[in-house]
Every structure is written in C-alpha cells, then in structure tokens.
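anyone seen this seq b4? input:
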Amino acid sequence: MTVIAHISDLHVSNNAFDDEVYLEVVNQVNALEPDMVIVTGDITDHGYYSEFHKATEYLSMINYPLFAVPGNHDARNVGYETFEELIGERSWVLTKDDNLTVVGLDSSGPDVDKGHIGRPQQLWMENELDKSLNNSNFSIVAMHHHVIPVPKTGRERNVLSDAGDILQSLINHDVNMVICGHKHVPHLWRMENTLFINAGSVSSIKLRGNDKNSYNTYHISDNHIDVILNHINGEKIFLGKFNRDQL
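predicted toks r here
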C-alpha cells in the first residue's frame, strides 16, 4: 500500500494564509504517516522571497518526503528563481519501489496566471512516461494548472493553453492519475483510464461560497485506489474506489 497526501494552494503571505488551519493540516498529515506528500503549487501568494522563506519553515514541519511543483502565484516577482533556490527543481521525476512513477511538471510562467507546459517539457514528460510504461509502473503526473475545466469555478480562464496536446499525451501514455490544484475547488474527473483529480486550497482564505479548506489522500494498493477528500474539521468524503485493472 502506498499512501500519498496531496496538498495545494497554501498561499503563504501576510493576508491570504491561515496559519492555524495549516498547523492543523500538519498534525493530520503527520498522523497519516504517508509515503510522500505532493504539493501542487501556489505555495506563496506573491512569489516574494520572504514568503518563500516562511513557506520553507512551514513545509519543514511535515515529517515525510515532500515534493512540490510551482503555481502561477509562485512565479510572480522572479519567484521561479526563488522556488529553485529554496524549494527545489520545478520539474522532476521520482520512482518508489520500482513500481510507482511520479512526474512533476512546471505549468507556471513569470507573472501570468494562465498555465502552459510547452513542447520541450511535454517531450521530456513523454520520455519519462515511456519508461514508466515499459516498467509497468503505476503513474502519476502532478502540476498546478488543471487540464480539464473544473465545475463551479466560474468562467474558464486559466486552463492550460496547450491542454489538448497535454491531454492527448497523458491519455496515450495510460497515466493512472493526474493531480492538480489552482482552482481551490476539489473535484475528480475520469477520462478513458485516467483519473484527473483537483485538490482544494489547504490553507488559503480564498475560498468559494461555503467551501472549506481541504486536502486529498490517495491509498494505492495492488488492486485498487481509494481517493479521499479531507476537510480540515476532520470530515472525510470518499470520492471513489477504483480498480487498478480498469485504469
């Protein structure tokens, strides 16, 4: 069993970040004892160096391996350089136990809200996914921007500008899960044999309607995948159990 905690959209700042909520998340995630924690962007609100510096302190409170990709807010104010200095590489690949591959993509651009993967990064992703397919690995692709529009998020403005090309690559490579953030609304789509899962905002005050801060957890066994939405108040919503032989 592999357990993954998926958090997104912290928005560390002086006015958009709820530190009490985040500290509760830290307690819950550490109690879960996940194999890894994946952060899908917008760690900061403005990309300022001081925000990134504070964010590294908050992220270090999580006691399990953590991997992050940047969001559009992180790329503001030369934040894409600060991300690499204080957080790590903006695109990366990791394997676990020779049977799980996670590819992290940078969908952000300097001082723009829209997302874009770009042809060079797409080709790199396809090469890594080819290796995953050859090894029959379970595959996950993580990025900030959503590939498929998310319901109840208003007028669509910020889906990937090259969403069609990226979607085709993901489907053609039989990716099992694509995990994103950005819209602050949790949701799950299934297309072909791929799950497209969005996380809500884990600690931002920028929430729609009566939405609550939340994060996702994924329990991946040899036979099935459990997808769980976790509200900060302890409420858990079971988003689905999926048989691996059908993905």
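The first helix runs from residue 19 to 32. The radius of gyration is 16 Å. kinda curious what u guys think
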